Amino acid sequence: MYQYVQEYANQDTRDSWDEWSGFRNSIGSILTIAIDRYNLSTNRILVLGAGNGNDVPIDIIEKYFGEIVIVDIDPKALDSFMGKTKQKEKYTKIVIDLSGFAAQVENLNLVDITDDSLIELIKKISPKVDLSAIHGKFDVIYNANYFTQLTIPLGFKYQQVHVQPPDSIKQAISAITNNTQIQLFQQIEKLLNINGVCLHSSDFLELNYNPITKEANETCKLVMQVTEGLKYIENVQTINSLISEKGLRIEGSTLPVSLIKQIFKTNTVFFLYWPFDHSDMYFKGYVVQLFVFQKL
Ligand SMILES: C[S@@+](CC[C@H](N)C(=O)[O-])C[C@H]1O[C@@H](n2cnc3c(N)ncnc32)[C@H](O)[C@@H]1O
Known about the structure:
With 296 residues, the protein is of the alpha/beta class. The chain has a single domain (2-204, 250-295), classed as Rossmann fold (3-Layer(aba) Sandwich). The protein is built from eleven helices and seven strands. The chain has helices at 2-12, 21-37, 58-64, 75-82, 102-105, 115-124, 156-159, 167-191, 218-226, 240-245, 257-263, and strands spanning 44-48, 67-72, 91-95, 138-144, 192-209, 264-278, 283-295. Strands 3-2-1-4-5-7-6 form a seven-stranded mixed β-sheet. Helix 6 (115-124) packs parallel to helix 8. The chain starts with a helix and ends with a strand. S-adenosylmethionine (SAM) binds next to helix 1. S-adenosylmethionine (SAM) is lined by residues 6, 10, 13, 49-55, 72-74, 77, 97-99, 102, 144-146, 149-150.
């Protein structure tokens, strides 16, 4: 059911191209700044978690790069991505499981299962990330907002009914996340040319608000206050420790910092708002951190 969960989510956001245009354009501006500031070569770019391409500045990557490789677990989403492209000859599509453990849980029902059985099952998972189907080196690798998705199917039982998993399950999932992320970054580093850049973009705070009842989750209240209604999104940095203390960060958004320090120079970090699903009845949005990691 791993694949099913990701495909279901992608079907839901297939038509988000217009809604996400501001977010996508900000990522395009950051990419343009990075190319200019770090004098990057623009022969090849790799987009991991490319999906439907709604958060990928397609016009900008086509303008700058000679070759574009897009990767996702969901082949239908990659087809939808290709439908938005103009210079099709520049692209290669590759279907890969970036979690390294999807096959280990694919045939299991992760919803109709007791907490005890789920925790046993999670503890047996051993991620083996394999990016060997991606050939050659890249000047830029864009991690397109998929890190927090990788373990979603493991907690889907709770997500479906909008409750937090028990701490024991959260801890077991975090251990998998950490293992997967370490393998991913090690392989990303190998795929980069010297001085090449990984633009690592990931949601880390979820904002929920109901415009009718005016109800908001705790994260939304805190973020709205400190950013003056999303005007100064970078101000979320000032509540970093409070966010961690309260356990408000989204699973998958905490990075393996010591590995990153060993293999990358962290040039800068940007804060963005991602209006994920805004309607008259309900809105869900994310605060996103986008790091510019440069290979040493
Ligand atoms: C929230 S979406 C990001 C938005 C996406 N780039 C788009 O515009 O549609 C996360 C993406 O990560 C992909 N993804 C999730 N788990 C994956 C995995 N294990 N391997 C590869 N891709 C995965 C999903 O299929 C989805 O396309």
